[in-house]
UniProtKB/TrEMBL annotation:
<dbReference type="GO" id="GO:0008479">
    <property type="term" value="F:tRNA-guanosine(34) queuine transglycosylase activity"/>
</dbReference>
<comment type="pathway">
    <text>tRNA modification; tRNA-queuosine biosynthesis.</text>
</comment>
<feature type="domain" description="tRNA-guanine(15) transglycosylase-like">
    <location>
        <begin position="15"/>
        <end position="375"/>
    </location>
</feature>
<feature type="binding site">
    <location>
        <begin position="93"/>
        <end position="97"/>
    </location>
    <ligand>
        <name>substrate</name>
    </ligand>
</feature>
<keyword id="KW-0671">Queuosine biosynthesis</keyword>
<keyword id="KW-0808">Transferase</keyword>
<dbReference type="GO" id="GO:0046872">
    <property type="term" value="F:metal ion binding"/>
</dbReference>
<dbReference type="InterPro" id="IPR004803">
    <property type="entry name" value="TGT"/>
</dbReference>
<dbReference type="Pfam" id="PF01702">
    <property type="entry name" value="TGT"/>
</dbReference>
<keyword id="KW-0862">Zinc</keyword>
<feature type="binding site">
    <location>
        <position position="342"/>
    </location>
    <ligand>
        <name>Zn(2+)</name>
    </ligand>
</feature>
<feature type="binding site">
    <location>
        <position position="147"/>
    </location>
    <ligand>
        <name>substrate</name>
    </ligand>
</feature>
<feature type="binding site">
    <location>
        <position position="316"/>
    </location>
    <ligand>
        <name>Zn(2+)</name>
    </ligand>
</feature>
<dbReference type="InterPro" id="IPR002616">
    <property type="entry name" value="tRNA_ribo_trans-like"/>
</dbReference>
<feature type="active site" description="Proton acceptor">
    <location>
        <position position="93"/>
    </location>
</feature>
<comment type="similarity">
    <text>Belongs to the queuine tRNA-ribosyltransferase family.</text>
</comment>
<feature type="binding site">
    <location>
        <position position="313"/>
    </location>
    <ligand>
        <name>Zn(2+)</name>
    </ligand>
</feature>
Amino acid sequence: MTNNLNFKIINTDGRARNGLLHLNHGTLKTPTFMPVGTGGCVKAMLKRDLEEIGAHIILGNTFHLWMRPGIDIINHHEGLHNFIKWQKPILTDSGGFQVFSLKELCKITEEGVRFSSPINGSKLFLTPEKSIQIQSILNSDITMIFDECTPYQIGSHIINREEARSSMHLSLRWAKRSLDEFKRQENKNSMFGIVQGGIYEDLREESINGLLDIGFNGYAIGGLSVGEPKEYLHKILEFVSPKIPDNFPKYLMGVGTPEDIVNAVSNGIDMFDCVMPTRNARNGWLFTRYGNIKIKNSRYKNDTNGLDPTCACYTCRNFTRSYLHHLQITKEINSSILNTIHNLHFYLNMMKEIRESINEKKFDIWKNNFLEDRSSNSY
């Protein structure tokens, strides 16, 4: 396929690496974190807030945008960038994870997925071709293949090897159909494949080899952080990442905590997304250099300190923990706004520090200091 994604590794420090990733709407410095804007909006954040905290790419979701506002409306605006007034890169998930989250309500067949709309109950049918057609209308800088996200378990049943194998093979067949449709659309953007295979290393390797044979611009690791014990996440990541050729960008989907991201960078991962910083912000769970703060805790009621004295975000520059506690307890809208500004700034500044430490060949020193500070819980 035509590669409209130009990825260049600039520096390495062990397996950690800095890169430049050129997309049609801009160039990213990697490793990078993508704030999640599921329905065309990063919750509680205006465009100016995203720009101020240094966001250079956001993630949208094919499934949710298909539901609302609908593809006709976005097509009328000639793409998602114009609709939301964001002229920087956008990556769109294919809808595969929504199939995973609606699994009990879906009927998955070789052709695609049938389900009822969570909005109005109407009958819907999503196929690899349909997902790619939607993403082409969205004009996503990075289009994701439509895949089946293999769960770790359903109810009390842990997915066994044969179930994981069947799911992975279905995703490979869907990957080929996704790419074929991408080419039919004469899409000028880029497409990533998604490695599946559950917690089984041999299936993960088979998935990688199958995706490399099909040929994509980059490769994502899916099916992690879906309920499996943490040790499986680290084990699979350490196995999978070196199997993906280093000249491609590597994207770990839906992960995670600051500690998880730092560990993944150690394993050569370049791109991350997760709802954790925004969702936790709305629930009053704030990330700081020296541990996490549950701002609604009564201990912060009279605390006149700033949230995190090491942070330069708008929230930390202007407001006390006491005020943020008050906003959270009284459920003021500004609580979500200020908390989200801080959490996303924390994540993006963490990525900036990671890039700088790699450039200086001091990533391991930075990593050890960062993890030690985070574990101190001195706040």
